[in-house]
Amino acid sequence: MRLIRIALASVNPTVGSVQSNTDRAVAAAVAMARAGATVGALPEQVLGGYPPEDLIQWRGFVDAQWRALLRFAAETKHHGTVFALGTVAALKGHLYNVAAVVHRGHILGLVPKEKLPTYNVFYESRTFSRGAPNVYDEVSGVPFGDLVFSFDFGKLAVEVCEDVWSPDGPQRRRCYAGAEVVVNLSASPYRMGVVNTRREMLATRSGDNQCTLAYTNCVGANDGLIFDGGGFVFQNGRPMLEAPRWKESFASAVVDLDRTLRLRTENTTWRTDCLDAQRGGALPKTLTAHGATADRAGLPYPAPVHQSFFLPGASAARSAREEFCEDLLDALALGVGDYLEKTRAFKGIALALSGGRDSLLTLLIAWRYTQKRFADLDEAARRAQTGEFLRAFYMPSRYSSDHTSESARTICQDLGVPFQVVPIEEAFNREAEAARTMVGGALTGVTEQNVQARIRSQRMWNYVNTSGFLFLQTGNMSEKAMGYTTIGGDLEGALAVLANVPKTVVIYLLEYLLEAYGFPGIKMTLSAPAGPELAPNQKGEDELMPFPVLDACFHLYASEKLSPAEVVYALGSIFPEYDEAARSAWVTKFTRLFVQSIYKWVQAPLSLHVGNLDLERERALQLPVVETTEWTRA
Questions:
Q1: What is the pLDDT of residues 23-52, one digit of tens each?
Q2: Nearest Cα residue to 39 out of 47, 48, 29
Q3: How do strand 219-222 and strand 225-228 relate by DSSP bridges?
Q4: pLDDT surpassing 80 at residue 620
């Protein structure tokens, strides 16, 4: 047997906070070492924070990370654990996103990321250069390049995030060069459903390359990207560890590297491919570390917890509904909390509460964050702190109903959030009259609706400017996609919490939260049709289209990139209850409003990214503001 303990740390860095990030990394490393880790892994770019974007172009920021890496090595030198951690390295006019291997106070080597994503939310090729096979150089005397490390327990390779997502990544040739353990350092953003994709992909890579694969992920949020943390260890495709997500922590597992070696020996296909690679050309350079690693004498054999190698263990898995909702709610709450805490510009959270679904869910997400923030307090003290930290304002006009007023009031009572009513009717009359004077006549109905929304927004800005609170914007993705929102009005805020959450998902989450908590305020809100209450008897689905149809149009057009005619056809399979004329009218309406609304998106606040599609122009969906749909008629 060759038993080793692999530990995975989820760390929450802040971009630019090199000193405090290093403090966190050192603390995690020492904790892993004290737990007997042979190998300890920390996330991608843990010293400088991810994504650094153009901040990486400041040489002082890069130099600070090199000094931080030296400090990390010095402060962990008394431990035998081999550490892998992410940072940046400068070499001959290039900047590289690297995994550093540190042991007993020495930086043994720097391995650059090879697969630089420049799609979706990623822009790494803008600032980083990519590593390449068979490269060897030095950075301040430290080996740099395509490396494998030989220790007294066996051979180790490291890689960075995207490298593992490609089946043709560096992992394959490093395993052919003898690496038995591959450590992947990631800062992989959360996306709805991503954990299952990650798990399957990592198991496949581990099986394909007949290696022990350890993956660790960053946790926390930076600039709207939310990282769920956690990690996995797979041995030749077999799951050995799944680390907890959504919190700073570490977890570890013991593996027997002789098992990895034995399975390689048994696998004739792998052996043949390995020999072909070795005969075909240069392989990564192997560096030998001479210091002793952590004592492994007392490590337990990795036995199944239920004492059977043949029977499945008791399943504590959550339902698909619970997993989806809890993950998404955790992501949004973490996004709000880290934005508030890391910017260090706000004293609390405020929002305009309409009595409708979107503002209700936004309030519940902010409340969820406060429950974690004050988790160490007893229930009464936590409720009191929530009342100090959260503020909700209900600003009725002549169109606001008693039902929405009571719904808003009730949920605030449920949560312990102060509820303040600030009518806007007088201001509405005054601003509408001023606008009529300017145009020399009557206002359109849309203008009268927008006047109300802008008064509410202005009052919220005035409040947060004085109080120092964070103003949350509450609009959802579906309505944003169609421009069913007001510039200077409900599009306003410092952080858009639901801007990438479709309307059908908003409703789904509220139904789940009602089941989970039973708050009467949620039940009251869901009992009335959705509508902005800016005009008599307004209903969102009457003015737009059924929300399920709207979200299907959005997905098919914006995500699947189907033409309008193809969207109409696809809708027939999804909603056979609607005839072609209705589907065609809805698609025509959607595409027209979608394109006409892009100018609004670029003026919207920073949003939380939780899916593969994003209406923040600097993120996933980059569309020209000036464009037409003429191509759809060609």
A1: 999 999 999 999 999 999 999 999 999 999
A2: 29
A3: antiparallel
A4: no
Q: What token pair was written down for 604?
A: 């919207």
> 94 φ, ψ to 5°?
-115, 150
> Bridge partners of 230?
none
Nearest to 578 by CA among 543, 540, 538, 550: 550
Residue 300 contacts residue 431 (beta carbons within 8 Å)? no
- The two tokens of residue 84 are 């892998």
CA dist 314 → 199, 305, 317, 581, 612 (Å) = 19, 10, 9, 52, 33
Q: Mind listing the pLDDT tens digit for each residue in 331-355?
A: 999 999 999 999 999 999 999 999 9
Both structure tokens of 393: 């304002």
Q: Give the integer Cα–Cα distance in Å for 615 and 589.
A: 18
| Residue 631's pLDDT band (cuts 50, 70, 90) | confident
Token pair of 433, please?
């009259």
pLDDT band at 22 (very low <50, low <70, confident <90, very high): very high
Question: Exposed, middle or buried, 288 (CB in 10 Å: 0-12/13-18/19+)?
Answer: exposed
d(CA 553, CA 551): 5
Tokens, residue 58: 């400041």
Q: CA 190, CA 196: separation in Å to the nearest integer?
A: 11
Taking the C-alpha atoms of residue 40 and residue 82, their distance in angstroms, rounded to an integer, is: 6
User: Domains, the chain, ranges and CATH?
Assistant: 3-288 (3.60.110.10), 320-535+603-611 (3.40.50.620)
| Cβ atoms 131, 162 nearer than 8 A | no
Encoded amino acid at 372, one letter: K
Q: Indicate if the pLDDT at residue 282 is higher than 90.
A: no
* Parallel/antiparallel/unpaired status of strands 39-41 and 3-10: parallel
Rounded (10°) CA dihedral 337, 202, 280, 147: 40
Residues 517 and 509: their CA atoms lie apart, in Å, by 12
Confidence of residue 489 (pLDDT cuts 50, 70, 90): very high
The Cα–Cα gap between 69 and 92 comes to 19
What residue spans of 177-223 are helical by DSSP H?
194-208
Tokens of 545: 């289209």
Q: What is the helix (H) or strand (E) element at residue 333, kind and residue range? A: helix 320-343
d(CA 169, CA 190): 22
What residues does 420 pair with on adjacent strands? 393
pLDDT of residue 304: 86
pLDDT tens for each residue of 368-408: 999 999 999 999 999 999 999 999 999 999 999 999 999 99
